[in-house]
Specification:
It is a single chain. The chain is an alpha/beta fold and 347 residues long. It folds into two domains: 201 residues, Medium-chain alcohol dehydrogenases, catalytic domain (Quinone Oxidoreductase, Chain A, domain 1, Alpha-Beta Complex); 136 residues, Rossmann fold (3-Layer(aba) Sandwich), CATH 3.40.50.720. It is built from eleven helices and 18 strands. Strands 3, 5, 6, 9, 10, 17 and 18 form a seven-stranded mixed beta sheet that branches. Strands 13-12-11-14-15-16 form a six-stranded parallel beta sheet, with helices on both faces. The longest helix has 14 residues. The radius of gyration is 20 Å and the shape is globular. It binds zinc ion (2 copies). The site of one zinc ion has 8 residues, from helix 2.
């Protein structure tokens, strides 16, 4: 079959012929419906000088936002229908530690025993005609479109997990939330906040078009620039924002988040931008919960699919054939995409 293969750090991926995969015990073979191109893939082949985790040794097939139809079952797999459409939970942990037991393979206590992080991150992913996935990682899509669903495996799951964790800060009247950065994750974040909370949702980005989209999902937008902090604070009657989500994670965005978060608020850095923040006792309002989150749980992904099927989340998607997949990655690297690029191998 053909696949987009990551062959080394600091080198652009290649489209090539690879052996057809076969499902191991407890796994299924999926005919790939869609594979989302995520910015962290650009981190792999363009930004990182070497493997920051020790668990992503090339070569492997890219794609950690995957959906597909069940083609074949590995040994011991029952209760899964051939031909049915599923969304894949990407992370693959040991399956037995405390974190994996609650469906949070991202925080597996024994990742070294597994040897890779996820489909598309150390183990072959979905930028191919077929892929294998542990049956435990499959979330049924029913009759929902599996291609548009693909990016939700990360661009939906990651904001959902961060927002769900911060929901206690948004319970009550007169609450507010802020999304910094309106790429794939931030725009889905606005939709999740609209669906799950009664909070005033504020959004900010440098791109005019992204702000328009956020407004269409119910957000009040504030442009970047000189009075950004003042304008955001004004929208909260000067009290500050109860839950801030930084989907970028660079120095200026973390600084912005810290400048507008309310007393007893939540500041969640979701974006892996490598930014730092010089914390000190009086630097943040009292009792601010300042944390990172990484991806989400299998249970979260079931919730995300339920919201997608209910029409509460609509990812903006641009479809590419496998032949054009490398062009999608080039555009992603060069910042030329306005929507999530999804590779559709069987188009
Ligand atoms: Zn990703
Ligand atoms: Zn584990």
């Amino acid at each position: 079959m053909r696949a987009i293969v990551f062959e080394g750090f600091k080198s652009f991926p290649v489209l090539k012929e690879v052996p057809d995969p076969t499902p191991g015990p407890g796994e299924v073979l999926l005919k790939v419906a869609g594979a989302g191109a995520c910015h962290s893939d650009v981190g792999l082949f363009h930004d990182f000088p070497e493997d920051p985790t020790g668990l992503m040794s090339p070569p492997f097939i890219l794609g950690h936002e995957n959906s597909g139809w069940v083609e074949a079952l590995g040994d011991g797999v029952t209760g899964i229908e051939r031909g049915a459409a599923y969304l894949c939970y990407g992370p693959i942990g040991c399956g037995r530690c405390r974190a994996c037991s609650r469906g949070q393979d991202t925080y597996c206590e024994r990742p070294g025993d597994v040897g890779y992080l996820a489909n598309g991150l150390g183990r072959d992913g979905g930028m191919a005609e077929y892929m294998t996935v542990p049956a435990r990682n499959l979330v049924p899509l029913g009759d929902a479109d599996p291609v548009d669903a693909a990016p939700l495996a990360d661009a939906g799951l990651t904001p959902f997990h961060a927002i769900k964790r911060a929901l206690p800060h948004l319970a009550g009247g007169g609450k507010s939330a802020l999304c910094i950065g309106l790429g794939g994750l931030g725009l889905v974040g606005v939709q999740i906040l609209t669906a799950l909370t009664g909070a005033k949702i504020i959004a900010t980005d440098m791109k005019e078009e992204a702000m328009k989209q956020a407004e269409s999902f119910g957000a009040t937008t504030v442009p970047g620039g000189e009075n950004q902090v003042e304008q955001i604070r004004e929208l909260t009657d000067g009290r500050g924002v109860d839950a801030v989500f930084d989907f970028v994670g660079v120095d200026p965005t973390i600084k912005l988040a810290a400048s507008v978060v309310a007393q007893r608020g939540a500041l969640t850095v979701v974006g892996i931008g490598g930014g730092t923040y010089p914390w000190n006792f009086f630097g943040l309002p009292y009792e601010v919960n300042f944390s990172s989150t990484y991806w989400g749980t299998i249970e979260d992904l079931h919730d995300v699919v339920a919201m997608y099927r209910a029409g509460q989340i609509t990812p903006a998607v641009e479809r590419y054939s496998l032949d054009d997949g490398l062009e999608a990655y080039r555009k992603l690297r060069d910042g030329e995409l306005d929507a999530r690029a999804v590779v559709v191998p069987h188009s």
